[in-house]
Design a protein that fits this description.
homodimer, 375 residues, alpha/beta, Lyase, Ornithine Decarboxylase, Chain A, domain 1, TIM Barrel, 2 domains, nine-stranded mixed beta sheet, globular
């Protein structure tokens, strides 16, 4: 164990990592990168890996080395963190509306190829002003709501209004195309449902693209698609770029999806390592809770045959035998237990470091961006 | 707005704080401290404020100034962080079993009055070894499971076994008494249910105390009780110390409890400030999500009359009118919206700083302990 606030040091045995700690299985991570980027390359679709999933520059650099054209993220703070690590092609796949944030965004755009989404004419004007003030140029994607009902405009008329506002702000703003991510399709369990959702999303995106081009606006890019649906965007003939993030890490929620034909199965690459801190006849208690693993998409699952999670509180996870009548051997006090998280993104965000392991050895300890990257 | 990674600077207007940000209403916080510590002082029960609720040394120091005898926390990393801020009476109200953590704990015990809980003889031996190695002395509380079914021993026989192991490890270990916290009683909604649970917990604690004293072991302290039940521990005649934490901050889950007679109502002191980043006919989107507010105890609630949360995803909270037929005025793009969190502890943990406001002005920006305090 390291003497700093890092939970481990290179060369440590996995079973000696201080807990709770976020563990990355490098073999699984690398296999996921090879599978996804190979799949996309064979189909001629560009991959922009979503850095919100991990907020870890070291992982983003490896995704780019594996074939990603760049990364996307949701926040100016994330973009600043990734840029500081040397990543020079970043899409903020989200709206940014506040003046101080827009000023930071414009400053960053002087150093890297940067794009951001808009869904309101006021935001276009504020972005243009920030870029003018900073002598910066930014690419803009109009976010289209293709079914999620969150951000983005729904009507082609609104798309054209935004395109005109962007054109009016040339040369500091330049229309790159459409952001068309369908978030709520990602966890539809049946592949057929996901396929149908993305077919509908693709039709909407194509209509908007055609309207833009009929209006004299080039729409070079249609980007979207996550770990649950990227095969359908890639095959759509409409999307030019996909934005998967969780594929590199995986979680129980994505693993509960029904498998898609021809899409390689991704391996569980992250886990939360905890120690057994209290043992009882009926249960055992692990030394991490809500501050170490996110439960918004359900409880984590212990990699301990015959055991399941009974409850998660701030600093404890209680596990119990699945079958109380069968005598599952209780884990020893102080022994380690790995848990698969329900949802990878907010779980990564609970840790300062990711401990990258090759088999049972720590190979590296990589920082995760500070919590202030949320701004 | 500050140019550092802090979301604000003293003197800023609340409406200019960068978002998402964790806001502390100082008037409400101070009123909660006055109410709780006045209540306890009038009843002659000592308060050990639970620092796990906020992990913020600046708040802990104010709790001590308001009358807390010291603080408790769950992790060695938290204890180190609070000690570094000058807090010199700390109870780790939890088990610590791993050798590197025990070594850190023993080192810390040379500098501050430190206590820790045990529920297994092996842990007593490992703790004693660490203290011997560090030439340190630590107070020990035997954790009694008074109904939660998590950590702690259940039988008086086990209590006596642990007391003998602690006595055998004198002088490096010294028995202080019993940790008897009933976590699952905190959110029983009816005051009568909470009263009955704590009556049962008090009987168990008194039995264990009597057995210890009959066995020649002084049991000076019986500590436990949280924000939902402290009135019952305080009135029990058994507990000598209460451990509330959330009282200072509050959340929706505690506010859903039925009120106790004679217990002052605590005010909502923390909120998560977000900005409206996207507006639509049917909904609006705020610029914070699962990485800014915890949803383990339910969705947050916007302080925006006629609006409610529809959904929370990684970086977005979607709000909608409660009554779609009534025309609730939509919030303006870029305007601020404060949300009350469902659960204060893991929400605090999602932020690097707490922005302390007096009315609509920022008075201070205080750091929250690093995520590595979980170890």
């Amino acid at each position: 164990m390291s003497s700093s606030n890092e939970p481990a040091a290179p060369g440590d045995l996995l079973e000696r990592v201080d807990t709770p700690a976020l563990i990355l299985d490098l073999d699984a991570f690398e296999a996921n990168l090879a599978a996804l980027h190979g799949y996309a390359a064979a189909r001629g679709v560009r991959v922009r890996a979503h850095g919100k999933a991990h907020r870890c520059p070291a992982l983003a650099l490896r995704q780019i080395a594996a074939g990603a054209a760049g990364i996307c993220c949701q926040k100016v703070g994330e973009a600043e963190g990734f840029a500081a690590a040397g990543i020079d092609d970043i899409l903020i796949s989200n709206e940014v509306v506040d003046s101080p944030k827009l000023a930071r965004l414009a400053r960053l755009a002087r150093d890297v190829r940067l794009a951001v989404c808009v869904d309101h004419p006021e935001a276009v004007r504020a972005l243009a002003q920030a870029c003018t003030d900073a002598h910066a140029q930014v690419d803009v994607l109009i976010e289209l709501d293709v079914g999620q009902g969150r951000c983005g405009v729904r009507d082609v008329g609104e798309v054209l209004t935004l395109a005109r506002a962007i054109a009016d702000a040339a040369p500091v703003l330049r229309l790159r195309g459409l952001q068309a991510y369908h978030g709520s399709a990602q966890h539809l369990r049946a592949p057929g449902e996901r396929a149908a959702s993305i077919a509908a999303a693709s039709r909407r995106a194509a209509q908007a693209r055609d309207a833009l081009e009929a209006g004299g606006c080039a729409c070079g890019e249609i980007t979207g698609g996550g770990t649950g649906t990227f095969a359908y965007e890639a095959a759509s003939g409409v999307y030019t770029e996909i934005q998967p993030g969780s594929y590199a890490l995986m979680d129980l929620d994505y693993r509960a999806n029904g498998a898609d034909l021809a899409v390689p199965a991704m391996r569980q690459a992250i886990g939360v390592l905890m120690s057994v801190m209290s043992v009882h006849r009926t249960h055992a208690v692990l030394d991490g809770g809500l501050k170490a693993v996110s439960v918004d998409s359900g409880a984590p699952a212990p990699r301990l045959s015959g055991w399941r999670v009974r409850g998660v509180s701030d600093e404890h996870t209680v596990i119990e035998p699945v079958d109380r009548s069968a005598a599952a051997p209780a884990p020893a006090l102080g022994s380690r237990c790995m848990l698969d998280p329900g949802h990878c993104d907010p779980t990564m965000n609970l840790h300062d470091h990711v401990v990258a392991c090759r088999g049972d050895r720590v190979e590296a300890v990589w920082p995760v961006l500070a919590r202030s990257a949320s701004r």
